[in-house]
Design brief:
- The protein has 127 residues and is mostly helical.
- The chain has helices at residues 3-9, 30-37, 43-48, 66-72, 81-89, 105-118.
- It has one domain.
- Helix content is 40%, strand content 0%.
- α5 (81-89) runs antiparallel to α6.
- The chain binds zinc ion.
Length: 127
């Protein structure tokens, strides 16, 4: 993955410019606001602001971007099935575009459910 691409993914959904205030039925939980803004507890962002040393995911396979976390990290595979099914039902291929997710209430809720189950975007405990 090119650095530009990684940056693009982790500018979050809002900066992709396809979401507006009138996006239906979208309530922002603190966790999903991170996905929207790109300001997340994922290592890609934390390393950029020098909170952690490495931007690599705990799976050690890739940079921990929002895209990696939502769509490909194997550490969360077992919690991703409902989300994957929702993408199938929306007739989208996997991985979906980040910007497509808020266009569908079903997709949005499936993504939130996934995020909540992983607890990966919960506020980290202080060391
Ligand atoms: Zn990973």
């Amino acid at each position: 993955m090119e650095p530009d691409e990684i940056g693009g993914y982790d500018q979050g959904i809002l900066s992709l410019g396809r979401i507006s205030q009138e996006t239906p039925n979208v309530k922002y939980l603190p966790e999903t606001t991170q996905v929207l803004t790109g300001h997340s507890y994922l290592n890609y962002f934390l390393a950029n602001i020098k909170v952690v040393d490495s931007h690599v995911c705990a799976c050690k396979e890739e940079t921990e971007t929002i895209h990696h976390f939502l769509f490909s990290c194997r550490l969360h595979d077992d919690r991703r099935s409902v989300f994957r099914n929702a993408v199938d039902m929306a007739n989208l291929s996997w991985p979906p575009k980040l910007a497509d997710i808020p266009q569908s209430k079903l997709l949005w809720e499936a993504m939130e459910s996934f995020i909540k189950q992983t607890k990966r975007l919960n506020k980290p405990k202080r060391q």
